[in-house]
């Protein structure tokens, strides 16, 4: 990787990891309702859906991948602006913007290098970033943390685009070329308006690398949609319980532990196609659901407190179950059906979105029972299909 790629990778993951931890601490610090954590999980999946539609299907090449990947830095920078005034709705919108734009760098790099091992680097920088607020918030306020992150993100963009900025400011030929491009855009607008047409041709031109028409619903997409409903029900319940049992102040630590083990697992897994490992991941998440049911009953009925050690174990198990499923299934997709990469992420996040929002309408206990049913069925119902293709 060249220096621009390293700066983008570091800024997108390290600084966004810090920001993500702050997003989790923010509701607890400003006394938002605990149910907002269901929205956090819902928004993260919804933002990923938007990102997978665009960035998961983009035509990446050596000329455009740097600029596309910068969206993953500019987006988080813009999202911070909505956090300076503590408000539930601004917080939700800010997290949506963050979730949508952050993943752009991930998709662009993965599609450009075609190597799922990049997950390790994305996760290790992200993980280091997540633990930093656990320390920094002991000395400075959330707002000061946000100011510092904003400055660093802005500096990253300026460094990566330093040559382009120089050319823009000091090279007349570049400026004239830019003016020609702008003139063409407005000429297209005038042409469309004069013909009483829509502005769709203009926007199709601006978004030319995006191929949304490849998003089709098939057996593989159904599998991911179904499984992620179960995964999300368990994960949303876990995130909600942390705040409910008054452990919200250690979110950065728990997220760091989760990310650390995720990075370790990504590093030790081998790039192979193995449907048994996919099923092990699902079975591990199912086991998490069983444990959460037991401890939620203990907490609500017997009023026995759940300590941080138990939550730490559950966050490690969450890392293991997710990486086991995602890593080996993504290998299968990239090797066998690379054209479906964006499709899979779209329907996977759609399933996660449904799983998290369900818990707003049913009890935590019923949601966990539903997750067990979904994950149990998915192991056996889809096993016969993947034996034929893997």
TrEMBL record:
Source organism superkingdom: Archaea
Protein keywords: Membrane, Transmembrane, Transmembrane helix
Protein known as: Uncharacterized protein
Ranges annotated as spanning the membrane: 7-30, 36-58, 65-85, 91-113, 120-140, 146-166, 222-242, 248-266, 278-302, 308-329, 341-362, 368-386
Keyword Transmembrane: yes
């Amino acid at each position: 990787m060249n220096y621009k790629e390293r700066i983008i990778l570091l800024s997108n993951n390290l600084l966004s990891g810090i920001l993500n931890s702050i997003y989790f601490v923010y509701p607890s610090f400003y006394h938002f309702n605990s149910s907002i954590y269901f929205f956090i999980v819902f928004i993260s999946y919804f933002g990923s859906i938007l990102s997978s539609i665009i960035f998961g299907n983009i035509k990446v090449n050596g000329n455009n991948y740097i600029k596309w990947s910068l969206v993953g830095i500019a987006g988080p920078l813009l999202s911070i602006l909505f956090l300076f005034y503590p408000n539930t709705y601004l917080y939700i919108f800010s997290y949506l913007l963050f979730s949508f734009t952050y993943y752009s760098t991930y998709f662009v790099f993965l599609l450009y290098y075609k190597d799922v091992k990049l997950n390790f680097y994305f996760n290790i920088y992200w993980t280091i970033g997540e633990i930093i607020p656990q320390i920094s918030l002991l000395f400075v306020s959330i707002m000061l943390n946000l100011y510092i992150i904003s400055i660093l993100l802005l500096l990253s963009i300026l460094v990566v685009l330093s040559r382009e900025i120089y050319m823009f400011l000091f090279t007349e030929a570049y400026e004239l070329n830019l003016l020609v491009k702008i003139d063409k855009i407005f000429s297209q607008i005038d042409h469309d308006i004069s013909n009483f047409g829509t502005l769709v041709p203009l926007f199709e031109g601006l978004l030319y690398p995006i191929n949304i028409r490849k998003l089709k619903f098939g057996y593989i997409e159904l599998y991911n949609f179904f499984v992620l409903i179960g995964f999300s029900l368990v994960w949303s319940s876990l995130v909600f319980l942390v705040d409910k049992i008054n452990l919200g102040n250690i979110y950065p630590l728990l997220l760091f532990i989760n990310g650390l083990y995720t990075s370790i697992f990504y590093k030790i897994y081998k790039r192979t196609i193995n449907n048994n490992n996919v099923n092990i991941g699902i079975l591990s998440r199912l086991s998490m659901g069983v444990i959460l049911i037991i401890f939620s009953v203990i907490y609500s009925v017997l009023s026995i407190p759940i300590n941080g050690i138990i939550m730490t174990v559950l966050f490690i198990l969450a890392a293991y179950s997710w990486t086991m499923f995602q890593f080996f299934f993504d290998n299968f997709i990239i090797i066998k059906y690379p054209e479906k990469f964006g499709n899979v992420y779209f329907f996977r996040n759609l399933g996660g979105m449904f799983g998290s929002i369900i818990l707003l309408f049913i009890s935590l206990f019923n949601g966990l029972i539903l997750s067990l049913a979904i994950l149990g069925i998915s192991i056996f119902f889809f096993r016969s299909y993947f034996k034929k293709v893997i």
